[in-house]
């Protein structure tokens, strides 16, 4: 059934790649991402790779410095060369010579970022609320786009394909189908840095984080194995659930009694093979490794809320494994915290956001708050520019050293109790203030754990919180619920992260 369908898809992709690779023995074959119009990371040693006849000598001529790099294809026909790039510039030619030669043109040197996630990261620019204006301003020859073909696979794939994916120059025609969030990020980066910017988007709507995790990583921890176990359970239950559901639907159609039957989770998932663990890493991410990157953007979480207790470990594993796959152990990563929406389980939505924020404890990982950008009635807010600008602000501040650009949102730092009041301190709290009247989304509780809306005000850069009926507060929460009443900001007009704290002396 669905399992056999996935196997057939994977087999087809494997055979396609294998046939193309075999034909490559007669000539130099390059992965899709190494092509004309690409951007290579400036001032770096960048990998170039491909296939040729085993034992064949490969020469690479770089147009920017006229050097000749050489290597030999190994027994499997694979070759890789590290090429040095100078400061940003171009366009240049790049020639790879084996039995024949391939000349790549219009190659730029600059900054290269990859973005990934689910539907909000995949959200196309032509769907954006500003598209009618934006499409008149999108001709940016210094911005280049790469979007791998959507594909799933049970094995890590390489894109020695029919060139269905290619680098494109930013125009209204090429950008309409590209990630809006990533585009706005790139425009701001290019404007501030004045260098070429290449953006690679690998995303797919409606997927959980485990779809982007490599199989080798999933096997490393029992918690990461939970997603594998769930898929096995859905696979085993699919046939029986399908029969039961079909009978229930038929019975409902006859009698109209009770509620309309809900599709069992096994059926829902098995009809969406792209949600299986590892298949998008294998089919999409692996095809662009180990292209040299400047950094990574991540925005995902909606489809993972149900398993929020696993998310912190999953996201840490994803960051670590992708850094390894791209051979960049300290690759800068910027995580966009999940924005507001009416989630069925708001406690789990908070837990997932907190798991995202905790990634900032990792080296060279940064998190931006987006709670004020959401729409409780629409899981896909249509204005993606603010998201892209928050990503760009963090990249410019932390990766490129432009400290004058606002980047950090206030984050909980400490809590003190005096009498019946809490005093809460924050990192990045300069200019801390409350917008638009009394705060609505601060709640406080005593030992009984019954939360009530608190009174709050700013006192010397601390948030003072209390309620007259609670003499000994023990718990405090901010933006814990499904809400867009975001009112706590710093002087850079960036919103404070949600927090939930249990006070202990």
Describe the fold and architecture:
Helices cover 27% and strands 25% of the residues. Strand 19 and strand 20 (462-466) form a beta hairpin. It has 505 residues and is of the alpha/beta class. The protein has helices at residues 2-24, 119-122, 131-134, 172-175, 180-193, 215-218, 226-255, 265-270, 279-283, 311-325, 346-357, 385-399; strands spanning 39-41, 45-51, 57-62, 68-72, 78-84, 89-97, 101-117, 140-146, 168-170, 197-203, 295-299, 333-336, 365-368, 411-418, 421-427, 433-434, 442-445, 452-453, 455-459, 462-466, 475-478, 488-489, 499-502. It has three domains: 2-109, Immunoglobulins (Immunoglobulin-like, Sandwich), CATH 2.60.40.10; 112-222 and 273-399, Rossmann fold; 411-502. Strands 1, 3, 4, 6, 7, 8, 9, 10, 11, 12 and 13 form an eleven-stranded mixed β-sheet that branches. A four-stranded antiparallel β-sheet has the order 14-15-20-19, with no helix packed on it. It comes from Pedobacter psychroterrae. Residues 111-233, 286-384 form the Sialate O-acetylesterase domain. One of its GO terms (molecular function) is sialate O-acetylesterase activity.
Shape: globular
Superfamily at the CATH H level of the largest domain? Answer: SGNH hydrolase
Biggest beta sheet summary? 11 strands, mixed
Q: Kindly name the structural category.
A: alpha/beta
Helix content: 25-40%
What is the highest CATH level, the class of the largest domain? Alpha Beta
GO molecular function, one term: sialate O-acetylesterase activity
Pfam families: SASA
InterPro entries: SASA, SGNH_hydro_sf, SIAE
Domain Sialate O-acetylesterase: 111-233, 286-384
